[in-house]
């Protein structure tokens, strides 16, 4: 009986995988469910442990997670996912629709900034920024350049939070409207200004910084305080500092 269920789950997984994104681990599944992801398949090699984790960390979702998860043996889980997460949970969810993201990104008036990553190169950074964007409740994360911000490695480092904000790749000349605050060590000290809620907060690529095109269009160039002789901060940590300066959720009026 359990073997039948497991075999069915494996067939379903293989049929579903091409059109979905992998949620790698319990926390990714938890976040995705909290933010309304359509989860199409979920497997684990230790359902009792996963349900116990849900009871401890996500009692709002214990029932849903227990209903969704199908137990498969450890070898089968290894066949289904490239790298088994320590929680031994994996799930597949439908990517958020492009049109819904575009609607969200273009809605005015905007209550919280859009983060723009100008030609990012590191998928771990992209996911970390999505996670920050989710935590700060920003409108979305737009990337320019050739990297898909929904690449499995970006989704992995985003911990399932791609479903909590609008994440899209757009051409550099089709960014949402709004004043463009480009983060660059040559700019004005961020502590001397207020970031408006409708800003686009743009960050340069790990290799080359802000592109000349974006620099030219920027309303302001903004610098994070940094000691002389240090050339720059990591991309994701720069986003964290800028969003913290903007204010984030529940900031005083
Ligand atoms: C790793 S840095 C880019 C370093 C790159 N080699 C360069 O020449 O600019 C990635 C991005 O983080 C932001 N950043 C890093 N340090 C910054 C600082 N002190 N002030 C403002 N932005 C910073 C910028 O947007 C930068 O383009």
Automatic annotation (TrEMBL):
Listed transmembrane segments: none
SUPFAM superfamilies: alpha/beta knot
Domain tRNA/rRNA methyltransferase SpoU type: 114-244
Domain of life: Bacteria
Pfam families the UniProt entry points to: SpoU_methylase
Sorted UniProt keywords: Methyltransferase, Transferase
One MF term in the entry's GO annotations: RNA binding
CDD domains from the UniProt entry: SpoU-like_family
InterPro entries with a match to the protein in the record: Alpha/beta_knot_MTases, rRNA_Methyltransferase, SpoU_MeTrfase, tRNA_m1G_MTases_N
Gene Ontology annotations of biological process type: methylation; RNA processing
Protein name according to UniProt: tRNA G18 (Ribose-2'-O)-methylase SpoU
Species this chain originates from: Streptomyces iranensis
Lineage summary: Bacteria, Bacillati, Actinomycetota, Actinomycetes, Kitasatosporales
